[in-house]
Amino acid sequence: GAVVSQHPSRVICKSGTSVKIECRSLDFQATTMFWYRQFPKQSLMLMATSNEGSKATYEQGVEKDKFLINHASLTLSTLTVTSAHPEDSSFYICSAREDLSNQPQHFGDGTRLSIL
Amino acid sequence: DQQVKQNSPSLSVQEGRISILNCDYTNSMFDYFLWYKKYPAEGPTFLISISSIKDKNEDGRFTVFLNKSAKHLSLHIVPSQPGDSAVYFCAASAYNQGGKLIFGQGTELSVKP
Questions:
Q1: A104, B104: Cβ pair inside 8 Å?
Q2: How far, in Å, CA of B102 to CA of B91, rounded?
C-alpha cells in the first residue's frame, strides 16, 4: 500500500529555534499533501494544504509566516516551524494522496515537537 | 463549528462481539467518508472508505454504513479482536473543497479478551 514517511519523529529544542519537518510519499506521486496538528485527546486539525509548485493554502487562524510550507517535488513537502515557542509544542502529522479522484489520504507517523 | 462529530469518546466491547462506532456530519456537500485507526504517537492508518453514492462498503471484518438522509455513518467491526483496540477517527471530504479531510474527535475502542 501507499507509504508516507515523516521525519523526524521527535524533536526537543529550545525556544526560538526553527524546526523543519519532512514528509515524503515513498511509492507514489502526490501533487497535494496536507499538514495537520493534533493536541492531546483532540482531533486532527488541518493546518494547510501543500501544493506542488505553488503556494500552500492555509486554514483560518494558521499563521503562514509561522508555519512555512514548501512542496519542492511531487514526493516531498516540508513544514518549518519558525522561531518556535512552547505553545507550538504539539504532534504534527502530514498526509499525502495519490493524484487520482477519491483516493484516501495516507498519513506519516507524525512528529512530536517539544519546545522548552 | 464541528462539521464531523463522534459523540462517544470511548467504547468497550468483549472480544468476539461486534463493535459499532458512530459518526454524524452536518455538511451536505461531503461526498467521501473515511475511517482511520490510530495508535498513540503514530499517524492514522486508513481502514475503509465510502463514497456518497453508496450506502455500504465491506472489507473483511470492517463494514461502513452511510445514511445520507440522517447524515450518519457507522463502522462495524465483527468479530472484534483485542488488536482492534485503538482510537478510531471518522473523516469526511467534499470534492469541491479540495478534498481536504475534516475529522471527528475520535472514539477510543477497547476490546477486552
A1: no
A2: 5
